[in-house]
Amino acid sequence: VERFSSLVSRVQIDISDGHVGQEVSWVPTADNHLPHRDTMSFECDIMMTDWRSSIENALASGMNRIVAHIDSFTEDELQELCGMLSPLDVSLGLAVSNDILVEEFEQKIRYVKNCYSTIFIQVMGIKNIGAQGQIFDESCIERISHHKQIFGDIYIQVDGGMRPETAKRVRTAGADGIVVGSYLLDHDD
């Protein structure tokens, strides 16, 4: 966070349990508090089997945007997720793995859009979630275009595989924002 505090206004922090996302990462507890909360926004990309307590801890630590990977969520779980966030001023990002059919993801987006007002879409720019430094997944271009055509009013961001050339391509396809990890971390300047 310190490294990027003068460069960006929002930081996405991935948390992964090694089951939903490939790698096991730091997981916030309610006692952790993020720095620069007065000048920066924090987004938590939750790739956890225990998403409920992970969301609670992420919010307690200072996150004000949550990305939920809803691949296997039932309608009851989607409703629970919306109910959990409804009393709060939190943006909810919806993401799925790229092996989930775009039409299935579209149905889940529609369902959540009907029960929660502040949502955005996160399209994965990589095939295997939860690991840094992967190559760009070409299928995300079509997914972006599809979601932009169907949900033109919803913000779409792409996470994974972002470099200058892929960022331009996803922007042309209709993405509103990108999440950059390893490309920035691997460069000193």
Tell me what you see in this structure.
- 33% of the residues lie in helices and 20% in strands.
- The chain contains six helices and seven strands.
- It has helices at residues 51-61, 75-85, 102-115, 139-150, 164-173, 182-185, and strands at residues 10-16, 41-47, 65-69, 91-95, 119-124, 156-159, 177-179.
- The protein has a seven-stranded parallel β-sheet with strand order 1-2-3-4-5-6-7, with helices on one face.
- Strand 4, helix 3 (102-115) and strand 5 form a beta-alpha-beta unit.
- Helix 2 packs across helix 3.
- The chain is globular, with a radius of gyration of 16 Å.
Q: How would you summarize this macromolecular structure in one to three sentences?
A:
The protein has helices at 51-61, 75-85, 102-115, 139-150, 164-173, 182-185, and strands at 10-16, 41-47, 65-69, 91-95, 119-124, 156-159, 177-179. It has 189 residues and is an alpha/beta fold. α4 (139-150) links the parallel β5 (119-124) and β6.
